[in-house]
UniProtKB/TrEMBL annotation:
Residues 1-238 form the BEACH domain. Keywords: WD repeat. It comes from the Eukaryota. GO terms for cellular component: cytosol; membrane. Pfam families: Beach. PROSITE patterns: BEACH. InterPro entries: BEACH_dom (IPR000409), BEACH_dom_sf (IPR036372), BEACH_Domain (IPR050865). The keyword Acetylation does not apply. PANTHER family: BEIGE/BEACH-RELATED, NEUROBEACHIN-LIKE PROTEIN 1. This is NBEL1 protein.
Length: 238
């Protein structure tokens, strides 16, 4: 599979799906759901220019430290952490880039994830402000909140329906703007959920991502998962 990918006989999407499968990740287990990277950082432009490297996320860094200003938060947490019982090892992140709650968060508008989300929240939808209601806002929250380090799920590259509230669920209102949470708000450069998926998939297969995807793979599936390389990359999880 590696050789096929290097020879460009299979797509970046196919390679990531195969890697997830080999790593034991599966659609049948929300706690080990396939994980995909955030690949863009431009969610505000009117047009998406895939020839401009500046629109892409730095794939060599964990999602939590893309914003330079929070680097020291994780560095100091690791350096100063000490478990008095000596059981818990040092870590940069107390949460994870992939977990069951995150999968339900993204897929809240489609069953069976809607029901699973309601069960998780003791029989009701979570408050509107905490729900997945906007792609630009979700990206901004990642940049602003050191406690949110969620990567993406494969559906962001092929499944436009999860961005639409086709079932008409009452997901509440945002507190400040009073906007009703309905379909997911898309970046300006996407004119419909289908257009978002098309452009996002095109970005995944772009020349820039093809040249840098191995850097993210090292963090998630490769040698930077643990040990000295993980410490150096600020990539140690609880």
């Amino acid at each position: 599979v590696l050789q096929k990918w290097v020879n460009r006989e299979i797509s970046n999407f196919d390679y990531l799906i195969q890697l997830n499968t080999m790593a034991g990740r599966t659609y049948n287990d929300l706690a080990q759901y396939p994980v995909f990277p955030w690949i863009l950082q431009d969610y505000t432009s009117e047009e998406l220019d895939l020839n401009n490297p500046a629109v892409f996320r730095d794939l060599s860094k964990p999602i939590g430290v893309l914003e330079y200003s929070v680097l020291y938060v994780f560095f100091f947490r690791y350096e100063n952490f000490e478990d008095p019982l000596g059981i818990i090892d040092k870590f940069h992140y107390g949460t994870h880039y992939s977990n069951a709650a995150g999968v339900m968060h993204y897929l809240i508008r489609v069953e069976p994830f809607t029901t699973l989300h309601i069960q998780l929240q003791s029989g009701r939808f979570d408050c509107a402000d905490r729900q997945f209601h906007s792609i630009p806002a979700t990206w901004q929250a990642l940049m602003d909140n050191p406690n949110d380090v969620k990567e993406l799920i494969p559906e962001f590259f092929y499944f436009p329906e999860f961005l639409e509230n086709q079932n008409g669920f009452n997901l509440g209102q945002l507190q400040i703007s009073k906007d009703v949470v309905n379909d997911v708000v898309l970046p300006k450069w996407a004119h419909s959920p289908e257009d978002f998926i098309y452009k996002h998939r095109k970005a995944l297969e772009s020349e820039y991502v093809s040249a840098h995807l191995h850097e993210w793979i090292d963090l998630i599936f490769g040698y930077k998962q643990r040990g000295p390389a993980a410490v150096e990359a600020l990539n140690v999880f609880y």
